[in-house]
Design brief:
single chain; 200 residues; 7 helices; 33% helix; globular
Length: 200
């Protein structure tokens, strides 16, 4: 996966690169996410991290693709904001240390295999400080048999999470609230969801 994503960032622009995501913008503008020590998990080219830094958040942003981090650093320089960009692996962290007040994950957790998700949880949950807010965005829909087969064939992670997966996975440690999402879409991907979780 690392090679695939690093090559994609180095020689192209993945489709998720662009402006800060709308759910994040809304939460910040409404005061539901307030400035504090923040980590962007799987930051890509850093668009969300840069937005947060512009709004007073103290941001550490991590991705396992060096090419993504290189682009993110240049974007932050041009934007005139300070973000600590780190190359690290969310399933075996070496450079990132909590606690954080805010955690953000846009489309990283859902892309991992089951063993990688287990390792992610071991690494990431301890990063969340008391009453920390955790914004997680993922693809989410009831998977069809042919999609399940595709997941076994495609060598890079998974396609989606099943409805209820986030609640079942994180509810021992967080109060989980779904704040946005769509399902049953005729286009592909067929659904998505955003969750705002609060550390217990």
């Amino acid at each position: 996966m690392r090679l695939v994503y690093n090559t994609w960032y180095k020689y192209g622009t993945p489709p998720w690169v662009g402006a800060a995501r709308q759910e994040l913008v809304n939460l910040v503008e409404k005061g539901l996410l307030t400035p504090g020590r923040t980590v962007d998990l799987g930051c890509g080219e850093g668009d969300n991290a840069i937005f947060l830094a512009r709004h007073g958040f103290d941001v550490t942003a991590v991705d396992f693709a060096p090419a993504a981090i290189a682009k993110a650093k240049e974007k932050a320089r041009l934007a005139g904001v300070g973000v600590r960009f780190l190359v690290d692996d969310l399933t075996a962290l070496r450079e990132v240390h909590g606690p954080f007040d805010v955690l953000v994950d846009y489309g990283t957790f859902d892309d991992l295999t089951a063993p990688q998700r287990a390792a992610y949880l071991e690494q990431v949950i301890p990063l969340a400080g008391d009453r920390a807010k955790f914004l997680m965005w993922n693809f989410e829909w009831e998977i069809r048999p042919w999609e399940r087969l595709a997941q076994r064939i495609i060598p890079v992670g998974n396609l989606t999470l099943a409805p209820g997966y986030i609640e079942a996975t994180f509810s021992d440690h967080f109060d989980v609230r779904k704040i946005a999402g769509e399902s049953g879409l005729r286009t592909w991907p067929r659904g998505w969801a955003a969750y705002l979780m609060t550390r217990r």
